[in-house]
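Format notes (please read before filing issues)

Several people have asked whether sequences and structure tokens are stored in separate files. They are not. Every record keeps both together, in the order shown below: the sequence lines, then the token lines. Line labels are part of the format and must not be stripped during preprocessing.
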Amino acid sequence: MSLMRPLISSARPRWRAVLLAFLTVLPLASTPFAGETTRDPGRHFFNQTFGDFSEELDTAREEGKIGILLMFEMDECPFCQRMKTMVLNRPEVQDYFREHFLIFPVDVEGDIEIVDFEGHANSQKDFALKQFRVRATPVFAFFDLDGNLVARYTGATRDSEEFLLLGRYVVEGAYKDIPFTRYKRDQA
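Then the structure lines:
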């Protein structure tokens, strides 16, 4: 046992140094580079809604959108926060998605009443869990103008380029023929 004590104590300072270096670099990895412009996703990515998605379909048609994008999220989700601070805050992402979709967040733990695409009232959490089986967040669900789910992506994308590729995948209608992973590979 006395031989082990020096090994453990000599490894401890190195481990602390590695941990300290990681914790120092981590905030830099999650912040935009100097000179990069970002905008609040709450104001520039998501649209305002009264929670009636059947009416939002009419609005999407009137505005010439191709559909509706729902982001199923929850407050404590680190991947949701990462998407908001690393991807959804980018002007190019916001502009592209707002051009083609109406976009709304849905709190998977929320008790606020919403009206689904068929006109039925539900709480946000029942809508997420019972209708779309959302068990992990974030989930990006794309709906056509009839309220049909056409594409679904679970988790955070690697970066804004991959999220834009996901948007193009839906806008171009590639979801009708191939899975997103193959689309990504074909685009590379």
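For reference, the curators noted about this record: Residues 34-187 form a domain with the Glutaredoxin fold (CATH 3.40.30.10). The chain has eight helices and six strands.
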